[in-house]
């Protein structure tokens, strides 16, 4: 009987999670997953440094992901465990760590010996995930090119940038700055 109760609890938790993440009324655009009050876009096709990733997210009406509780860490880890080992997240240090949306860091998940600010050049944070689903944070140089996650408020539409125009027929695509 206790084993049956455990399975029921797991099933209820899964159904609540599934409903929250994948409901038809999720208010997230294509390419975004709902969790709580935010929509998340996981970018694994194009790596960027911290500033370029944040600029992209701001242009989409959001910011790089901010993490304020363990449930968010579990959600993110669950989504990315089959994708990549490293994922850039958005804490940046100016005397103290803070999220790119301006909120203070209230939850941490530092790995052993982190943050260590190696060579005085590690002002950003990455979330390292393993094949078994565990994760921890590591500080790293902000110029490192990583995968990244944008976070926008549920119901807010990402801004889709227009396609750049094609060059005129006969025009050279060679840059004058090469």
Automatic annotation (TrEMBL):
PROSITE patterns named among the record's database cross-references: C_TYPE_LECTIN_1, C_TYPE_LECTIN_2
Residues making up the signal peptide according to the UniProt record: 1-23
C-type lectin domain segment(s): 35-151
Region (Disordered): 159-178
Gene3D superfamilies: Mannose-Binding Protein A, subunit A (3.10.100.10)
Compositionally biased residues, Low complexity: 169-178
Keywords: Disulfide bond, Signal
Biased composition (Pro residues): 159-168
Keyword Disulfide bond: yes
Domain of life: Eukaryota
UniProt protein name: C-type lectin domain-containing protein
């Amino acid at each position: 009987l206790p084993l049956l109760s455990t399975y029921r609890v797991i099933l209820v938790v899964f159904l609540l999670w599934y409903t929250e993440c994948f409901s038809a009324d999720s208010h997230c655009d294509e390419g975004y997953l709902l969790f709580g009050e935010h929509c998340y876009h996981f970018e694994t096709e194009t790596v960027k440094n911290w500033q370029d990733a944040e600029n992209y997210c701001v242009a989409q009406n959001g910011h790089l992901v901010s993490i304020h509780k363990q449930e968010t860490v579990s959600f993110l880890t669950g989504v990315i465990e089959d994708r990549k080992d490293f994922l850039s997240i958005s804490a940046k240090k100016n005397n103290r760590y803070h999220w790119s949306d301006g909120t203070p860091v209230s939850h941490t998940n530092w790995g052993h010996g982190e943050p260590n600010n190696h060579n005085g050049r590690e002002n950003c944070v990455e979330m390292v995930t393993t094949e078994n689903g565990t994760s921890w944070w590591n500080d790293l140089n902000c110029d490192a090119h990583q995968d990244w996650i944008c976070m926008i408020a549920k119901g807010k539409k990402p801004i889709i940038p227009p396609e750049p125009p094609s060059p005129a027929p006969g025009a050279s695509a060679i840059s004058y700055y090469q």
